[in-house]
Amino acid sequence: xxxxxxxxxxxxxxxxxxxxxxxxxxxxxxxxxxxxxxxxxxxxxxxxxxxxxxxxxxxxxxxxxxxxxxxxxxxxxxxxxxxxxxxxxxxxxxxxxxxxxxxxxxxxxxxxxxxxxxxxxxxxxxxxxxxxxxxxxxxxxxxxxxxxxxxxx
Length: 153
Hints:
The chain is mainly α. It folds into 2 domains: 2-86, no CATH class; 90-152, no CATH class. It contains 9 helices and no strands. It has helices at residues 2-9, 14-23, 28-40, 46-59, 64-73, 78-86, 90-108, 116-126, 131-152. Helix 4 (46-59) crosses helix 6 and helix 5 (64-73) runs antiparallel to helix 6.
């Protein structure tokens, strides 16, 4: 009954649901049996959860490294994570990182000009973007910022 109630609220991974059932007082063996039964019946699917998680979180500006860490923390298997994150298109990742950095740049640029590139780099790395993508975006945007700043003066 508790598992069904939890499943009506939001999607769960197998590991998350097992932990929640134990936290609510179910013995670990019972929680594992319930999770196995729900998985066999098709109510729990870590692969579908991972695909949905990657799709929704990447649309909100998170990169592959962050998505991998979040799914790992939720107990999703590495092969499932690789498949879900592997579906991200590299061109789309670069475009998302660039759009995210453009939105964040005005806030970052309020500080000292010599620290803009470092702060933008750190921001994108925290969001989980690969170093190569971060370098490309930071070079492109700081060149634009420097050029725009020189035109204003």
